[in-house]
Amino acid sequence: MQPRQRRKVPEGELCAVCSDRATGYHYGTPSCNGCKTFFRRTIVSGHTFVCQYNGNCDVNKNVRCACRHCRFNKCVSVGMDARAIQNDRDRIGPTKKFRMAKTEQNSSADDDQMSMSSMSPQRAADEKVIELLNGIENLCNTLRTCALDETKSVRETLASPSLLYHVGNIEMDHNTIFKELYPASMNDIQMWNIRELRLCLEWAKTFEEFTKLSESDQLALVRNFGFTFNILNRVFYSLDHGPDKIVYPNGAYILRQPQEQVKIPGCRSIYHRQMDEIMIPFRKLNVTIPEFAAFKASLLFNPDACDLSPEVKPEISMERTKYLSALFYFITNKIGLHDGVQKYGQLLMMAPSIQNIIDQNDENMQVMEVFGHFWRIDRFVKELCMK
Amino acid sequence: MQPRQRRKVPEGELCAVCSDRATGYHYGTPSCNGCKTFFRRTIVSGHTFVCQYNGNCDVNKNVRCACRHCRFNKCVSVGMDARAIQNDRDRIGPTKKFRMAKTEQNSSADDDQMSMSSMSPQRAADEKVIELLNGIENLCNTLRTCALDETKSVRETLASPSLLYHVGNIEMDHNTIFKELYPASMNDIQMWNIRELRLCLEWAKTFEEFTKLSESDQLALVRNFGFTFNILNRVFYSLDHGPDKIVYPNGAYILRQPQEQVKIPGCRSIYHRQMDEIMIPFRKLNVTIPEFAAFKASLLFNPDACDLSPEVKPEISMERTKYLSALFYFITNKIGLHDGVQKYGQLLMMAPSIQNIIDQNDENMQVMEVFGHFWRIDRFVKELCMK
DNA sequence: TGGCGACGGTCAAAGGTCAC
DNA sequence: AGTGACCTTTGACCGTCGCC
After folding, report:
1. Distance between CA atoms of B5 and B22, rounded to whole angstroms?
2. Is residue A24's beta carbon less than 7 angstroms from any atom in nucleic acid strand D?
3. Where in this chain does the record put each NR LBD domain (chains A, B) (predicted)?
4. Mind listing the pLDDT tens digit for each residue in A96-141?
5. Which of A328, A344, A359 sits opposite B356 (nearest CB)?
6. Interface A-B: count of C-beta contacts within 8 A
């Protein structure tokens, strides 16, 4: 289908993912049957995985099933291309289902009562939305551990294309890799703040509807959402060392009662609230990566964002609705309507608590700015977060 | 994947180990689920067993668990091959229906299908919840126009039974009745603030689960929710004179650009936001009174409310879920699943904006307190709203 | 047209789950 | 703690499609 590597026969070629014997070029990469099928299934189903360890598990023939997150990441990083996946393969006729084509097709067709089986058009769209979000989220998780150049201004960053599409070419930053648990220093916190805010911009730029906005509207959305993105990723991807620790990917951790060196005079600590009101609920609700991604997308597209021009608010609102619908579909499809409605409601109702924490953080940043001799706020952070 | 017997289906085949029904070829031998799992676990765990007898125990379906040594020996002797055992795989998560916080009243059997007709038991409960809320809301609307005695302290008010059950016996307050439109004075705003906050207490006390809480937990909830209640009622019940006016029941109105006499030095006006982010969306979404009531109830029961004791948080969370579920079913029952999901999502996602407005209001009140010579904050308001 | 290579689909047999 | 009915995931194999 895709003459990507035309006319080439792998010889004693090995799978680029797991070093098993390659059976050919699959999705643009020499790979074995297992990794080929694994990659397709992962993309098609929207299933997503969380690494139980530090996100850098070994992947080889013997242990390739041990960590699906790292296996998938390796698939992506060695160049497997999701665009080579054909979702519209109706052409395989002679399987079990015989065409009932023209006879009684409309018996159950447009009965728009709620039967899952007849929701195809909406569902296909939702599935596609989730799939896209999921792919981006995985790229984002890779970029989180990459070496990033010195941040330019927010405006310049918004104007350049998203790094996420070139994440395979960027080398890793060893400061982001887990080595051991240790109490976070202020430098750790600042480093991750800057990194996540940068990721937020790269992430936002992957939304077509976002890139179509004017510069000032883009700015309005990311200024509204930046720190939320930061905190949400911080707690969602925190390594799980119990309910009293937020652990960054590199092992730096923050305690419920923050260590002295990361306290800021005059500021109310919000770390315990990040644990109680976001991290723990995320875990209790069993929020998966695609759900998390859709939730974030619906928060990015906030029609009430400060300084957003009134004429784009309807589109922003529609985008929000799009991601909310996809989220609802995805959840209820997995765990059923009854439980899904509850999970969806509980997830959405985390938003006001998150907002309140962000508001407290804004206040803290004002205090830090006034008493700036304690900690200078980074230029990039200031540009993106200070009102 | 089939290193031994390829493409074969055992028919009435029996387990070579225990003569139970074989479920397939496992590790090279036709065997049942039990022996298959037993063999794998034994190999993986490295356990070794000692026979209590002579090492020649009988192994069959009924006694296969009697001697693990002899069972394992039989496994090996009939040809089970340890080389077919793989390395540990990744976790796959819950397989049974949802392992989350379970409710007492278990839902009906097939709640994972989108068929409204099979929800009767749950729906009956939801309907009852909505009916109750709606009745209270109507009483509340009557009480809004009644003459209220001088407010006591918040604690005293919480301790006494709700006025809403005696609303028929209270006479009207003519200051609350519409006579004409006129620009609100600061006195109007203060009067309505106090009145709504008082209503909030009377309203909250109608919830059985609320009255069962300790005084301090009750206080935590109403302090968290009081001003939200105030603002939500203000805009929801605003007489509709277009998108640029909030009109109190007595005709006093506030403009998008507030008149000079109600501006407070040092405070950012939040009236335009109340219009844009709450009043107009309520109208656009066609939110009905029962929906509005359920929404408020779900906001009252906020498990993240400041100073709430940790041990009641689960109950509070369950209450919230109860009202959210009722809200969802009420909406979808009226306008169908597709539109209902959207309306529900949009309604819930107003909550963060509302929270942000409340946070801005809190900040304004701090400013007013510091520069208190402009406007003194009422004692009751202060007790209920100042942090 | 016919061979070839890369798609998607299939299903026995792996491993994981959790009420008992 | 151990068991096993029931569940998801895996991957070798096969049919189909589109290119030379």
Report:
1. 14
2. no
3. 159-387
4. 222 222 223 333 322 222 333 333 356 667 767 887 887 788 788 8
5. A359
6. 148
